[in-house]
Every structure is written in C-alpha cells, then in structure tokens.
Amino acid sequence: METPPPAGTPPPERPPVTPSPGSPAAHATPDAPGSPSTPSAPDCPGTPDGPDRHGAPAAPHDPGTPGVPATPGAPGSPAAPHLPGTTGIPAALGTPAAPGGNAAPHSTATSPGPGPGPISSPGPAPRPDADARHDDVRHGDALRAAVLEAVVLAGHLLLYPSGLVTDRCADTPCGPRPPVLLLHGLSDNRSAFVVLRRALVRDGTRRVVAVNHSPLTRDLRAAARRLDRHVEEVCERTGRDQVDLVGHSLGGLVARYYVQRLGGDRRVRTVVTLGTPHSGTAAVPLAGVHPLVRQMRPGSAVLRELAAPAPGCRTRFVSFWSDLDLWMSPAETARLDHPDLDTTNVRVTGVGHLALPVHPAVAARVVAELDAGQARYGTTGSVSAA
Length: 386
What we know:
This protein is an alpha/beta fold.
C-alpha cells in the first residue's frame, strides 16, 4: 500500500498532455485556473479562421482569454491588427478582409471569402465615367437638336408663303456645272431650301431651280412623272444634257423613282437625298391616312419597286442620314443600300429632320459632293458631316 504524502505537501506535477491530431484540443483551450498558459499554434498565413486542415471545428473564442485570436465580427472582440503592406477592400463593397491575411482584391464579379461559398458584390458595378460622359453628350446633342428643330420650324412658317410662287428657269446658259433641281418634302414647298440654294449659287458655276410638288398629289409615281417634264424643260432652257437632283424626305424618293423606274439615269448625274426613308419609316403611325405617307411605309408597293434590281443605272446617289432624325424610324432607314446603285451614305450627327436642308455643315457637304460629281460605280462610303 502506498503511503499518503504528509499534509501540506504539494501534489506532484503531471506531464503535459499532447493532444492528438484532429482532436478538439488541437486548437487553443482555456487554461485551468492557476496553471501556466500553453502557447497556441501559429496561424497559417492567409488562412481564415474556421475548420482546421484536419476538418475539426474551431473552438469558440472566450472573450478576455489571453493568447487566443479574436474571431472577426464576434461581439466584444478586439479588431484584428493591420498587417503592413495590405490593402483593405473598399467599404462600399462590404466584404471583410480575412484575419491575419492579405485583403482580397476589388472585383466586380464574385470573389471567394472565408465562408462556405462565394460572396457576390452587392449590386452592379459602378458605370465607368466614360459611359456617363457619353450619355451626357448624347442628351446635350438631343436637346440642342430639339431647340434647332423648333427654331427652323418657326422660321419656315414665316417663309412658307414666299415659297408658293413657282420657280422658273431662265432661258440662258448656265455655268460649267450641271443645273440643280431641288425637291422638297411632304406638305412643304421650295422655301425649305433658302440656305442650301444660297450655298449652291455662291460660286456662280451652276443654275439652281426649286420645284414645287402639286398639293393635290396622292401618288409618288405621278410626282416622278412631273419631275421628268421639269428635267426636260431645264435641259432645254440651259442647253445641258444632264442635271443634278437634291431631294429632302419625300423629294428624295421622287428623284430616286424617276431615275430607277422612268429612265431618268440618262439625264441625272447625281442624286442627293436628305432624310429620305429609302427603306420606309414607321414614325407617326396616325399620319398613315395620307396616301403618300402609306407609300413611305416599309414594304409598300413603291418601295418594293425601288428595291428591285436596277442593272446598269448610271446615276450616283449620296444619302444624308441623321442619328437624331425623329421622322425616320429607325434612323438608318435614310441610308441607301442597293447592290446595283453607286451609293455614298453620309452620317450627320446632332441634326434633326427639318434642319437637314438648312444646316451649314450639311449644305457645305452637299456642295462638295456635287462638285465632285464623278460616279464610282459600286462603291459605298460612310462619313460624318456635322
């Protein structure tokens, strides 16, 4: 029998117990009162707190126990110290950095976090400043175009009575360039070409005649036949064999029908169209009660005729279309794309439908295209005029 130790003798020290791998004691355990603290194993750099590498759950942290790292987000626990050289994630994203490791880089997509699954950034990523500036520019262009349209409309209403008088071509030879016939749009008259006409006659090298459509016109084909008679008259009075045509909106379709369907390519060197619905426009549905508007709708019989093959057409076409032309729906319908025609499409930016014939940049480009005047059969171009 073992003899008990005398009273007052301290009990012998027991050897330290080494926990086996994978046991709960592998993590830091609160020391017994009065016993020395056992240093905890160092954390792996960049490894978030959670299950250890053997799969055992982490022991909960007891606030105030020395030697145990605080769990992020636990109430009453001190904040993890900041490591030099690490950068935290912006607070707007709301993703905490892993304790003891480098902060995750900012990303607009999902990024891995210390939890069991991916953490998505809250909400869409902020739009780049370039996109915001582009939208501001677009809104500013639209506002300026709307103001310009209102000003042009007011001025046009004042000049409209002056355009009711028929414009006649004098019986005198014109300059070295072919004469130009101007064709207005629906419910308009030759007063729409005040600015463009002045630009065309400035150098004195050509004769310019503005043609008024009959207010009783109900068929685009009939307007094209009357244009045929006007062209023959101008050629006879000026002694020229060819003319150039400039048409705004409906006037462009009248000119094109004359050239493609009535043999006008023998008389017409160049056709310039401004805001003409070559493929048809769906704008202003209620205006379809007018027969001429119905002929400008997509798929109409007139547009099907113009889309038919036109082999050997000798006339050059220049089409001006605007990204802010609200009468063209879609805006690209004012482009002319036909496999048998020599076409050049000129994109105009920031100009509305009514302002196309009076905008100085457009007028200057029209003059330049007519001065060039050489057909380049089968070519297609696209440039910006304003």
